[in-house]
Amino acid sequence: MLLTRSETLRLLIASDSAERAERIVSSLKNSGIATRPTRVEDLEDMHQHLNQGNFDILMAAEHLGESSYEELLSDVQTLERDIPVIVIMNKYDIGIQSRALDMGASDAVPADEPKLIALIIRRELVNLQARRAQRRLESALHEVESRNRLLLDNSRDAIAYLHDGMHIYANEAYIELFGYTKADNLDGMPVIDLVDPKDLANFKNYLKAYSSKGEAPTSELRFHGLRNDGQTINAMMTLSSASYEGEPCTQIIIRIDQGEEVRAELAEKLREASTLDSLTGLGNRSLFESSLEKAVSQARSREHIYALLYMSIDRYSVHSATFGPAGSDFITQEVARHLADILGRDSVFRFADSTFTALMVNADSVQVNKITQQILDHIKNQVIELPDGRNVQLTLSAGAVCFGETARNPDDLLSLAAAEKARASERGGHALSIYDPAQNAMQSSTAMLELLQAALEKNQFKLLYQSLVDVNSEGIGFYEVYLRLPLNDGEVLEPDQFLPTAQHEKLASKIDRWVLLNACKQLKDHIKHEPNSRLLINLSGESLLEPGLAAWVGKLARATSKQPGTLVLQFQEQDVTNYLKQAGALALALKEVGCDLSISRFGCSLDPLNTLRHVEASYIKLDGSFTQDLGSEENLASIKQLTSEINGLDKKIIVPYVESTAVLTKLWSAGVRYLQGYFLHRPEEKIGTNPDEDH
């Protein structure tokens, strides 16, 4: 999915029906897609918005005023904008769908299929993200290639690029090495013309071996190079894959061969020291990590499928204590030897003290299960005699994960395999657990529920506080409260990662009360030093349905501070519009007990001001997409217009994601009351941390 928690879908709807547009927006929000829509009623208006705004998706009705969807699609193509267009049909018509697809639309879907519309939008967002990422990467690649060309031109090494054995580029060092004066002398020249005739056979075989395998030989080729003046030079050559001006080619590096055998031996020893484990002779962790990266790359390019094994000796700490360092080292060596015999020495690595990893090529889960069970049984049946004459029998526990074209990144794969090994160890050892994506998906919500229940019982949630800067005052006494859930492995979950499960299991309101209680505890201590401090507390939509919330919050506020307005409860605009009557009633009830209500992610509906006619919110926090759109004068003007209308209703405006001086300067005169962002003040674990400490 393209959108993160802080991102919003910029949706342009071309329709003369406000009711239909509102239904589409409502269905998208109910599907979990945060949306900031804009509606246009004719082609001219659409053309203007596409030129001025950064939209993600364009949804077009069959007819737009007197224009048809065909005219609209033709108009979009002339703008050369990368924006997916989805045609909304009055009813399903294969003729319209075929015609729309033929003219470049991403899809055509009936208006009465909201779930299908949401699925199509998610798909198009993923595709759009991929295209944008490709353009960014192409731009970055162009910059890298330019820098590399500069480095090549000035390198002391003699470097050239070959295509079908012909020179297409040579740097200055290469040109000088072979006695030429300029690169043009070598353009199109076969590389074999630079080789002494007596070495041609070996040279051709070396090139042929590289061409057939598609990867560089493991050793350098020593040959006699032929200079332009007829003299020969003792040279060494290495090959590697490269690209030149977007085309695949072969890079060759030529060095003078000094005939120093000692240097070659030293290089081999250094290679072994850097890649082999000194105790077992197996590949070490560094070699494993590079091998895993290569395996992931090959899997993603559909060259092979792989399985990653993660194996540990059971009860290793007991064996170490019983047999001492020498005995435990001997045990490790014996296990390594057996693993190398079964899987092949090049496939097994010593990852840590008692842990081994292995990569199996073209092995599916059935083969992995069969081979690994054979390994576990083989190790269990061995009676290992230690140097001091004592005997020991061992078992292993193993975890495995298979990966192919859709492989995750190497760190994730390693974590999955390690987690499966831990599950195997929990069964008492001598066991194998293989990662099952389908089973993991079914178990994830259950595991998350247990995690949330434990966090509530053991107070494992964590609160962060970020100050809001009042443009009318130098004082800092207004803090927004954020909820986090730390995990044992150091990862910290944000609400969008656990709130869906909490809402589904009706735990969200309980979590909200935990937040209110614990935030007020810290505020009560803090107001001893800053009496006028206030909190802006984010709550879930579930709390809008909770009877008696306002009365309970009023008691909590009075117990925390004697100042009115100490607590401001904040709900997202989508939750407020979904429960408009309940939100309106809560806002009034909060005012009666000296508290206020705020609406966040505001502006993500076709008529956002309509909500304020029903809900007496004191604060309005604009959606983050408004801040991201400040690059153009048109968008800045639209923000000023919206803030002017909100100010006309006597509401205080909060703008988030202020991350630069440029944004700060533009917003200072835009009619907003509070500014917030990492540039001003990062979220802290304590209320009132000096924002200047980070700058």
Description:
It is a single chain. This protein is α/β, with parallel strands linked by helices and 695 residues long. It has four domains: 9-136, Response regulator (Rossmann fold, 3-Layer(aba) Sandwich); 155-259, PAS domain (Beta-Lactamase, 2-Layer Sandwich); 282-435, Reverse transcriptase/Diguanylate cyclase domain (Alpha-Beta Plaits), CATH 3.30.70; 446-694, TIM Barrel (Alpha-Beta Barrel). Helices cover 45% and strands 22% of the residues. It is built from 22 helices and 29 strands. Strands 20, 21, 22, 23, 24, 25, 26, 27, 28 and 29 form a ten-stranded mixed beta sheet that branches. The protein has a five-stranded parallel beta sheet with strand order 2-1-3-6-7, with helices on both faces. Helix 2 (43-52) packs parallel to helix 3 (69-79) and helix 15 (508-526) packs parallel to helix 16.
Produce the secondary structure layout:
Elements: E1 9-14, H1 18-30, E2 35-40, H2 43-52, E3 57-61, E4 63-64, E5 67-68, H3 69-79, E6 85-89, H4 94-102, E7 107-110, H5 114-154, E8 158-163, E9 166-170, H6 172-177, H7 200-213, E10 221-226, E11 232-244, E12 247-256, H8 261-275, H9 285-300, E13 306-313, H10 316-343, E14 348-350, E15 355-361, H11 365-380, E16 384-385, E17 391-392, E18 396-403, H12 410-426, E19 431-434, H13 437-458, E20 462-467, E21 469-470, E22 478-486, E23 492-493, H14 495-504, H15 508-526, E24 534-538, H16 549-560, E25 567-572, H17 573-578, H18 580-592, E26 596-602, H19 608-612, E27 619-622, H20 624-628, H21 633-648, E28 652-655, H22 661-668, E29 674-675
Parallel strand pairs: 1-2, 1-3, 3-6, 6-7, 18-19, 22-24, 24-25, 25-26, 26-27, 27-28, 28-29
Antiparallel strand pairs: 4-5, 8-9, 8-12, 10-11, 11-12, 13-15, 13-18, 14-15, 16-17, 20-22, 21-29, 22-23
Helix pairs in contact: 2-3, 15-16
